[in-house]
Amino acid sequence: MNLFAKTLCASLLSLLLAGAAWASEKVNINTADAATLDRVLVNVGPAKAEAIIEHRKEHGAFRSVEQLAMVKGIGLRTVELNRDRIELGAAPARRPAERPAAAAATATAAARPQR
Q: What pTM was computed for the model?
């Protein structure tokens, strides 16, 4: 019985340590792909992970953890459950989209000879 108790305690301790290591995984919500968001964040599945990516593409990088609640399907409860898992690192630089009309006007003005 003593051997059984020691084996049980050792098993529980290793499960506890493994769980702590798993729970400490963090994700940068400004750079992570949908699969990583789905895997690391609690109550975030594939659809919500894709919604996070789409929100990031439309509105730019998240500047605070609370901004995650602006994503459709993500509430403050989900944000609070994941606060320790979320990192806000620098997002990759976004180049502003060039408007075709502005580009054409610039090209036309540059092509005209000066008088």
A: 0.61
